Amino acid sequence: MSEITFTGVSHSFGERVVLRDVTLTVTEPRVGIVGANGSGKSTLVRMINGLVTPTSGLVTVDGLDVARHAREVRRSVGFVFTNPDTQIVMPTVQEDVAFTLRRRGLSRDEIAERTAAALDRFGLSAHAEHPAHRLSGGQKQLLALAAVLVAEPQIVIADEPTTLLDARNSRRIGELLASLEQQVIVVTHQLDLVANFDRVIVIEHGEVVADGRPDAALSAYRALLA
Ligand SMILES: Nc1ncnc2c1ncn2[C@@H]1O[C@H](COP(=O)(O)OP(=O)(O)OP(=O)(O)O)[C@@H](O)[C@H]1O
């Protein structure tokens, strides 16, 4: 697994302080991040692949300073956005999944093979030729995951990956995330999704307020919400 570190990380958007002096070392295979709306979860995980650069402090992935080596870090960190429309870049479902691989210079045959396997894995094979933007919200979320996972990143970050999914697909994504070989970091409001993870971090007003095994951390979070 990779080692992700946050050292004295703070972040402000204008006057608004969103993260305050966060220090964490993450090495576990499955890490959940929970917290109230606006607590700073997305901002925190976006720092892992350089989508947000901290106002102060340092974020590293396997020793690389993300702020200085964002391109290199992004090759090993796959990021699945909450809103799949943000990351659909190609006209058809198949082309969208193949896009990441084409940028990596793989052969046509290999791209076709890996794309077909990814579509199959996510139940999207029947939609391969369909316009990606016409998929349902849930199908788009599955497509976003397929397009990230097809590149086999070392770390998968998913920011609320089940928001648009029905109960069946939500369970399916939960099982899939749990079964991946990769290190997985999930931001979610669906607490059962991270209940069997190795570690859960609770963020409140930009600070880590609980951090540990899911049962203890989720109890602390439920107490905060009550
Ligand atoms: N690009 C931005 N510009 C200005 N403010 C922002 C920006 N991104 C986030 N914020 C603000 O920072 C705060 C934290 O946002 P963030 O998205 O990190 O929270 P979150 O815990 O992921 O919330 P949610 O559970 O609602 O998705 C919020 O008040 C949000 O409005």
Main attributes of the structure:
alpha/beta; 7 helices; globular; binds adenosine-5'-triphosphate; 226 residues; Rossmann fold
Describe this structure in words.
With 226 residues, the protein is α/β, with parallel strands linked by helices. It contains 7 helices and 10 strands. The strands form 2 sheets. A 6-stranded mixed beta sheet has the order 6-7-8-3-9-10. It has a 4-stranded antiparallel beta sheet with strand order 2-1-4-5, with no helix packed on it. It binds adenosine-5'-triphosphate. The site of adenosine-5'-triphosphate has 10 residues, from helix 1. Adenosine-5'-triphosphate binds next to helix 1. Keywords: ATP-binding, Hydrolase, Nucleotide-binding, Transport. InterPro entries: AAA+_ATPase (IPR003593), ABC_transporter-like_ATP-bd (IPR003439), ABC_transporter-like_CS (IPR017871), ABC_transpr_CbiO/EcfA_su (IPR015856), ECF_ABC_transporter_ATP-bd (IPR050095), P-loop_NTPase (IPR027417). This is Biotin transport system ATP-binding protein. Its EC number is 3.6.3.-.
**What's the shape?**
globular
CATH architecture of the domain at 4-86 and 153-225: 3-Layer(aba) Sandwich
| N-end to C-end Cα span | 35 Å
The fold-level CATH name of the domain at 4-86 and 153-225 is Rossmann fold
The CATH class designation of the domain at 4-86 and 153-225 is Alpha Beta
Rg value? 17 Å
Mean pLDDT: 93
Using DSSP, what is the number of strands? 10
By oligomeric state, this entry counts as: single chain
Order of strands, widest sheet? 6-7-8-3-9-10
Bound molecules: adenosine-5'-triphosphate
Q: Helices and strands: which structural class?
A: alpha/beta
Low-confidence spans: pLDDT under 50, at least 5 residues? none
Biggest pleated-sheet summary: 6 strands, mixed
Number of helices, counting only DSSP H or I runs of 4 residues or more: 7
- Give the name of the CATH superfamily of the domain at 4-86 and 153-225: P-loop containing nucleotide triphosphate hydrolases
- Note the beta-strand portion: 25-35%
State the helicity in percent bands: 25-40%
Series of H and E elements: EEEHEEHEHHHEHEEEH
